[in-house]
Amino acid sequence: MDKRGRSAETGLPILSNFRAADLLYVVTLRSPVARGRIKSIHIPHLPRGYRSITADDIPGEPYLEVFGARLPVLASNQVAYQGEPIALLVGPDPARLREALELTHITVEAEVPDFNFNQFNSERIAARDSRQYGDVELAFSIAQQVVEGDYRAAPLYHAAQEAQGAAAWFDYDKLMVRTGCQWPHLVHRQLAAVLKVKDVEVVVEAADPGTHLDSRLWYPALVACHAALAAVLCGRPALLVLSPEEDFLYTTLRSPVFCSYRAALDKNGNFSALDARVIINTGAYGVLADELSRQAISAVAGAYAVPNLRVQTFAVRSNLPAMGPLAGMAIPQVLFAMERLANDCARQCELDPVRFRAANLLKRGVDGPQGKRKKNIPFSQLCEAVCQASDFYRKHASFELVRKRHSDPGSNPGRGIGLALSWQPPAGLSAPANVYSAAVEVELTKELKIIIRAGLVPGTGGTVAIWKALAAEIIGQSPDTVRIEPVTTADLPDSGPSTLSAGITLIPQLIESACHTIRSRRFREALPIKVKKSLRNRPREAVGPGDGCAWGVAAVELDLDRYTGQPVIQGIWLAINAGHILDEGKARRSLAASTALALSQVLSERIQFENGQVGANAWQQYRLARFMEIPPIHISFCGNEPGSPAAGLGDLPFSLVAPALTNALSQARDTAWLADFAGDIPHGGDR
Amino acid sequence: MNIQFILNGDDIQMTVDPADRLADLLKRKSLADSVHVNCGLGSCGRCMVICNGRPANACMIPAFQLRNAEIITYEGLVQTPEFLLIEKACAQHGLELCQFCKPSVYLLLAVLLEQHNRPSGDDIRQLLSAVNCRCSASEDIFTVAAAVYHLKEGRFNGHAGK
User: Do the domains at B2-72 and B80-156 have one common CATH topology?
Assistant: First the structure.
């Protein structure tokens, strides 16, 4: 940390270290029921210097408009989930505020909530999408084999290092708001609308969001509005930091997804048709429904060629708190289902899972309904690297033999090895309503310093180091001369959300382009030279991965404990092809860290539900995997192409580890004598 | 109640509620910005301090236990030669911890240096499992832990910096 309390690497401050004279604290009064109509709010008499804030006090728009959804800043009439903010209490002593919170009474006329998302009526559909090509019914009628499967991905908590929150204060004529967010300009736009002020009167300053796993995409706009309302209405600085339990119970979890698949296979074991139905539970208000629905559809057939396809996706509202994407925009959940299906199909056809995948892969130049690919998927290269390192062929064959022979329990514990193939799409959101222009400004000053202005929150210090090295190399300066401006919305261009590895794909592309322009103008024009570059991302329509994706193959080997039936991971192997790797050491470390998180999600993170909603003790019972439980992770890079653009790879483990591990588990658990022992294995609810 | 303890070498006297936790005291009085109160259950390890020579979660230390205790936070560690060793080992192995995890991991590495003459792999794993680091891979941190120990050995043998 530097002297101003900012990270020396990223330049971002920590929100909870915010200090100000006359600071007021803000606590949130929440709905006690999941669905109902507010009848009355009884707030105890508050001492001097304290006040309450309700929806009636909002000077501007009482709603947030985020990602195609409209949700109240403070609920005034109807509540849509338990814990929905209804009012704010503001005062100088947090202990007294908590006492007042306990004495507050809200009367709500409860209605029957909808938690189930497998069955829903049309009123609950926030977004729907479908694709169909070929003759699916005919393909099924002549199919050699039909394989069916239902796959579920459970909700997960992001477990970022700091709970969500915001601070607001006045700096002369401007309202400053600090929050740990992924998209400061989105927060800025919402604040201006809610407070009914001009854009120039509000400045949003990004705080360090930590390892956010996309939980800070839009929710910070809500807490920023709460803190800003307190600051504006009281005329003093205000700080709102949710308690860890509030963060767990009421902010965004990963959207649960239910995928129902039916695959038709021909006599060679190739897909002849696929019929899929994907249902995404978006929680209350359907935030990101359109985006998640589109991303899910792009992943529904995995990386496989399917001549006849019918797919329907539904993003469904429920009375759970508004859900979020959690690393990967619903793609990991859908790829999980498709990779499980591929494994089930291979087993049904008695084919090796590698051979099955290779035979069904999308091919270069073949003009099919999934579009014409310019490049081959680097499956054989990646698979070879993983299979050799893990000894996959031998282990899989021998474990399969054990599974089929139903061996003697005294001699053979359940063992399995699983494989998965996945991709990460290029950065940028895909739904037309969410499309934006990313922009970066680079300046070469008279003092020969390089200043990079990007409104994108850099994920890590490593990202910042890559930006600096890139600019310095092109312009021919030392990296020490490069400065990254602190991320605020005051003068910086909107660079879009920091998601899907935008920090190492989109932004370096723009920095590179701007620096090349500066280099060409450097000795022809007087300094300073300032260049702004922007890039508009395009909505994506296609089913299947595009040519600019990063690719990965993973193998996971596990044993089942003889007595408890719990899986014990023996090893994880990953092979990655992500175009040009900007810094192999950093990429390797980033992948290893994400793999550990993904493993923790599958093995030990489970949210306990009671009567359809998150249980009262779920927070205390939510367990993250410890360092000791993480096995060695082997990572290899294949086909690092210096000429090609860098593709994002940080989210790849989230769509690789879960299916590979579950495929291994299905091999291990299928050993008949152990099937009963293995019963309730805590693997994040993914099946 | 009145308590007196040593924080990073400074005598601290304060009036506290016996039910207060050290983490709250440090935050409320702005005594240590490096202590992050996250889970409040003693499981995330981001409020790590060294209490009487042992690593402890500040959110689990009640105020009454602080009487005459010696507390070292990351701010105190920064002033020690061990900090330089750890920084050097991290730089050598390219380990970049985020600002939330860094203080806790550094304190644990300092304890490792202090408590173990020859830490085994299991010692390192067990001790470092006290912090739930979300930003870096465990193997990288274990590598740095081993490197820190070797740097320390080198220093005692007069090879530091070579």
Answer: no
Closest CA to A551 of A420, A391, A359: A420
Beta-carbon neighbour count of residue A496 at 10 Å? 30
Q: Largest alpha-carbon pair distance within chain B? A: 52
Q: B135 and A211 in contact by Cβ < 8 A?
A: yes
Q: Residue A595: its chain B contacts at CB < 8 A?
A: 137
Angle at A265 between CA A259 and CA A267, to 5 degrees: 165
- Report the candidate in B67, B36, B68, B63 with the shortest Cα–Cα distance to residue B49: B36
Kindly list the structural domains of chain A, giving each domain's residue range(s) and its CATH number in brackets, ordered by start: 15-113+158-250 (3.90.1170.50), 257-428+542-675 (3.30.365.10), 436-536 (3.30.365.10)
Q: State the pairing for strand pair A24-30/A85-91.
A: antiparallel
In the numeric block, which tokens belong to residue A565? Answer: 């039936």
User: Please, what is the angle between helix A652-669 and helix A584-603, to 10°?
Assistant: 40
Which CATH number does B80-156 carry?
1.10.150.120
Q: Does the beta-carbon distance from A592 to B128 stay under 8 Å?
A: no
Closest by CA to A655, choosing from A290, A344, A330, A418, is: A330
Residue A271's contacts (CB-CB under 8 Å, 6 or more residues apart) are A263, A264, A265, A304, A305, A306, A307, A345, A360
CA distance A588 to chain B (A): 9
- Do residues A549 and A425 make contact, with C-beta atoms less than 8 angstroms apart? yes
Q: Could you read off the pLDDT of A169-200 as tens digits, one per residue?
A: 999 999 999 999 999 999 999 999 999 999 99
**Topology of the domain covering B2-72:** Ubiquitin-like (UB roll) (3.10.20)
The strand order across the sheet containing A78-79 reads: A78-79, A36-42, A105-110
Question: What is the amino acid identity at position B59?
Answer: C
Find which of B124, B135, B136, B144 to mutate to test the A interface (most A CBs within 10 Å of its CB). Answer: B135
| Interchain CB distance below 8 Å, A163 and B132 | no
Residue ranges per domain, chain B? 2-72, 80-156
| B33 interaction partners in chain A (CB closer than 8 Å) | 1, 5, 14, 17
Helices marked H in B44-137 — which ranges? 74-77, 81-93, 102-115, 121-128
Give the model confidence (pLDDT) of B42-69 as tens digits.
Answer: 889 999 999 999 999 999 999 999 999 9
Q: What would the two tokens of residue A560 be?
A: 């089942």
Could you tell me the two tokens for A638? 């294949």
Beta-sheet strand order (sheet of B10-15) = B10-15, B2-7, B70-72, B48-51, B54-57
First to last CA, chain B: 52
Per DSSP, what are the bridge partners of residue A279? A258, A314
Q: How confident is the model at residue A535 (pLDDT cuts 50, 70, 90)?
A: confident
Please provide residue A428's backbone torsions phi and psi, each rounded to the nearest 5 degrees: 115, 140
Residues in chain B closer than 8 A to A163 (CB atoms): 38
ipTM at complex level: 0.90
For the residues A436-458, what does the mean pLDDT come to?
Answer: 90
Best of B26, B29, B39 to disrupt the A interface by mutation (most A CBs within 10 Å)?
B39
Whose tokens are 């139905």? That residue is A277
Contact B36 A162 (CB under 8 A): yes
Tell me the C-alpha distance between A430 and A292, whole Å: 9
The residue ranges of DSSP E strands in A337-485, in sequence order, are 415-424, 437-444, 450-454, 482-484
CA distance A162 to chain B (A): 6
